[in-house]
Design a protein that fits this description.
This protein has 223 residues and is α/β, with parallel strands linked by helices. It has two domains: 5-119, Rossmann fold, CATH 3.40.50.2300; 128-220, Orthogonal Bundle (Arc Repressor Mutant, subunit A), CATH 1.10.10. The protein has helices spanning 13-25, 36-41, 59-68, 83-89, 104-119, 154-164, 173-180, 190-203, and strands at residues 5-9, 29-33, 47-51, 74-78, 96-99, 128-131, 134-137, 142-145, 148-149, 170-172, 208-212, 216-220. It has a five-stranded parallel β-sheet with strand order 2-1-3-4-5, sandwiched between helices. Strands 6-7-8-9 form a four-stranded antiparallel β-sheet, covered by helices on one side. Helix 6 packs across helix 8 (190-203). The longest helix has 16 residues, at 104-119. The protein starts with a strand and ends with a strand. Bound molecules: calcium ion (CA). Residues 11-12, 51, 53 line the site of calcium ion. Calcium ion (CA) is lined by residues 11-12, 51, 53.
């Protein structure tokens, strides 16, 4: 994969330098910044690596603010592994999490995984699917309600797009985790519930995501 532009947000100079040279060896183009405000004013990258412990802002706020106006994949870097479940449960819009210490190969595996999920989104000619009064545009990765776009995180989009493949059919939790997250995901499956809750909130009565207790979820559209 070439010309992938990585925005690295990390104030620890030695970590930033070694990550930058490691990523560059693999052909990534790296812009490194050391503060949250610099991250927010940087030009749009293809993927963001975001350290949570920044000198000027809370990294979680930086994540939320990036997500508020962009669907760019965000990989959050935490200082402690046991923070990941806590952070993942918060709805900040990150796509993946990695704990320090980590190797450059691990980071590259995460980057490839989040980029692959975007690349592998179905993009057939019949890309726009209407479900009730919402339209799922799989090639543009947008969801419209009466021609107005609803802002979704990449994971929320993937989840809705997957459920939308078969309205009325039950999808198991395992199936949804496999389809939307991947083998690198090691947080709890509570993240699935968080994303389901976000979709319910964003689409209110446009459709219903029914919980099938002990099994999974089903997308139902009011007739
Ligand atoms: Ca830091």
């Amino acid at each position: 994969m070439f010309d992938v532009r990585v925005l690295l947000v990390e104030d620890d100079r030695s970590i930033a330098d070694s990550l930058r040279s490691g990523l560059e060896r693999y052909g990534y183009e790296v812009t490194a910044v050391a503060t949250g405000s610099a991250a927010l004013s940087a030009s749009a990258p293809d993927v963001v690596l975001l350290d949570l412990g920044l000198p000027d802002m809370d990294g979680l706020d930086v994540c939320r603010m990036l997500r508020a106006h962009s669907t760019v994949p965000i990989i959050v870097i935490t200082a402690r592994g046991d923070e990941i479940d806590t952070v993942a449960g918060l709805e900040v819009g990150a796509d993946d999490y990695v704990a320090k210490p980590f190797g450059v190969r691990e980071i590259i595996a995460r980057i490839r995984a989040v980029m692959r999920r975007i690349d592998s989104a179905p993009d057939s000619a019949a890309a726009v699917q209407a479900i009730g009064d919402i339209q799922i545009d799989r090639s543009a990765r947008r969801v419209l309600v009466h021609d107005k776009e609803v802002a979704l995180t990449p994971k929320e989009f993937d989840l809705l797009a997957y459920l939308g493949l078969s309205p009325g059919a039950v999808r198991t939790r395992e199936e949804l985790m496999d389809a939307v997250w991947d083998e690198h995901w090691f947080g709890s499956t509570r993240t699935l519930d968080v994303h389901i809750a976000a979709l319910r909130q964003k689409f209110a009565d446009r459709f219903v995501i029914t919980t099938v207790r002990g099994v999974g979820f089903r997308l139902d559209v009011p007739t």
